Amino acid sequence: MIKTDILIIGAGPSGLFAVFEAGLLKLKCHLIDALPQPGGQCSEIYPKKPIYDIPGFPEVLAGDLVTNLMEQIKPFEPGFTLGERAQTIDKQEDGSFIVTTNKGTKHHAPVVVIAGGLGSFEPRKPPIANITDFEDKGVAYIIREPEDYRDKKVVIAGGGDSALDWAIYLADVASEVSLVHRRNDFRGALDSVEKVEELSKIGKINLITNAEVTDLKGEEGLESVVITHKDSAREKEIKETDYFIPLFGLSPKLGPIADWGLQIEKNAIKVDNAYDYQTNIPGVYAIGDVNTYPGKLKLILCGFHEAAIMCQSAYQRIFPDKKYVMKYTTVSGVSGFDGSKKEAKKEVVKSIN
Prior knowledge:
This protein is of the alpha/beta class and 353 residues long. It is built from 7 helices and 23 strands. The chain has 2 domains: 2-121 and 250-322, 3-Layer(bba) Sandwich (FAD/NAD(P)-binding domain), CATH 3.50.50.60; 125-246, FAD/NAD(P)-binding domain, CATH 3.50.50.60. Strand 13, helix 5 (190-201) and strand 14 form a beta-alpha-beta unit. InterPro entries: FAD/NAD-bd_sf (IPR036188), FAD/NAD-binding_dom (IPR023753), Fd--NADP_Rdtase_type_2 (IPR022890), Ferredoxin-NADP_redctase_2 (IPR050097).
């Protein structure tokens, strides 16, 4: 039986940052994740994808963000159960919980935090009859290593942030980048849309709108795609390419967590955002993309905020008789997080005892 103060289900950015906030309160954390390494989607799906909305970082690769978070929480020595999925939760007589994984590993904690991101997921595939024939033979639904596309011809399909951001990034990597979108208007950030349009004007991105990829061709691997234009006056276009990457997002599923008695709304867990991001089950919280409340924004920085608020509430739940006096890390001497600062970190949390 693994015992801890806060059991975090999900080792993505929000879950990892919760370890830091809890550590400042001298609360021990243990994390469960079905993936074999920490980082969630940032590690598994797009480690080389640039992120632009992390405060203090004009641009940071998703994988580097995870590396920085792991370095930040290292002094607090969290535990990890990786490659296992949280399966069941059982409330004890004293109000604590036992969470058991699909491999039978049991975890005991007074507080459980669900930080599972989008949950388990699979890519949304376009309705192309023969697309499975070319999977791993030129068709990819996730870009893990951009250098695989160095000096190659790439066709990206999609109109959201992921399609726009990767088209911009690969414009300096691939020999040719085409972005195909079924509408004229994009769903992504305005700044990204403007960058794509600028790159299109100078010939670095072949922008094809009001059109769809409807067929794939090739003998032993992908050789070309068929693009059907919605304007009936134009004929179908055959474009040679080495890779076709449809980026239509992910189809998320909560998995076993959906059967835990939590209030679910549109595949997300309802929480009380007026106070502490607690669910309808006292002692069980949800932070990051997995939760929902009025005005919710699915941004990593919002998950960080939710983690900080949640930890304050968790501390009061674990130690109801102790008074916590908040101190900022800057005024408490915790300006760095290497080994030489461990004693300073101990001082910052003395005020809570």
